[in-house]
Amino acid sequence: SFRLTQSPSVSVSPGQTATVTCSYVLLGTLNVNWYQQRPGQSPVLVLYQDVKRPSDIPARFSGHNSGTTATLTIRGAQDVDEADYFCQTWDTDTGTAVFGGGTHLTVL
Amino acid sequence: DVHLVESGGALVSPGGSLRLACVASGFTFNRHPMYWVRQAPGQGLQYVSSIGTNDISTYYEESVKGRFVISRDNSRSTLFLQMTSLQREDAGVYYCAREGVALGAIDHWGPGTLVTVSS
Question: Which of A13, A60, A88, B4 has its CA 20 to 30 A from that of A44?
Fold first, then answer.
């Protein structure tokens, strides 16, 4: 299976825009999902199919996927957004899911 | 509300076996593919295995092939993971998860069950 590459950490000031990236050579041809995991909690789906938000996810979360990079953007980042974020896609050859290594977002 | 509750995690010696279970409620279980995803302490998420809506389509991460078996009992809304020949690298929190909102997107996760592999 292939690997999705994420930066280990990102920092942002409250109210600013946070950008979390996920890279793979063919990523733009695949659907990407994003999960938020707060400390001690289970992951939560925040974006699916690159850009779609589940109904309970705030509109400040958005996504883009093109070429080799998928991006999760959080506009007006808040303290509650401090968490680990994982990208995920699908390996169509093996029928298995693939997760990125995760990015820790710090809001301070 | 969707609920997924895992059980069966324990301390086991290297080479040992465990059977994890996940009881689902709040949705029509037999309409959703299901997953096991694990997370080693302080590490990221790792796909372990998934199963289609019946017992026929099953998939595994390479390192667990031949050692783990995923199955489901739709009559009891329960997902299983039989783990054998456990290695230290298999330790972590095992999450039961549901594919729902879109193909390949996991929209609900259980709280997880801890597997510790140590002598």
Answer: A13
pLDDT at A36 over 90: yes
Tens of pLDDT, residue by residue over B62-93, are 999 999 999 999 999 999 999 999 999 999 99
| B37 contact residues in A (CB cutoff 8 A) | 43, 97, 99
Partner residue facing B105 (CB), from A45, A84, A95:
A45
Give the pLDDT confidence of A48-106 residue by residue, as tens digits: 999 999 999 999 999 999 999 999 999 999 999 999 999 999 998 999 999 999 999 99
- Going by C-beta distance under 8 Å and a sequence separation of 6 or more, which residues neighbour residue A32? A22, A47, A49, A50, A63, A65, A70, A87, A88, A89
Residues 6+ apart with CB under 8 A from A57: A45, A46, A47
**Best CA proximity match to A27, nearest among A66, A62, A55, A1:** A66
Query: CA A47, CA A58: separation in Å to the nearest integer?
Result: 10
Residue A97 and residue B109: Cβ atoms within 8 Å?
A: no
Flag if A97 and B50 touch (Cβ within 8 Å).
yes
In chain B, what are the helix, strand and coil shares in percent, each to the nearest 5?
Answer: 10, 55, 35
Distance from CA of B14 to the nearest CA of A (A): 26
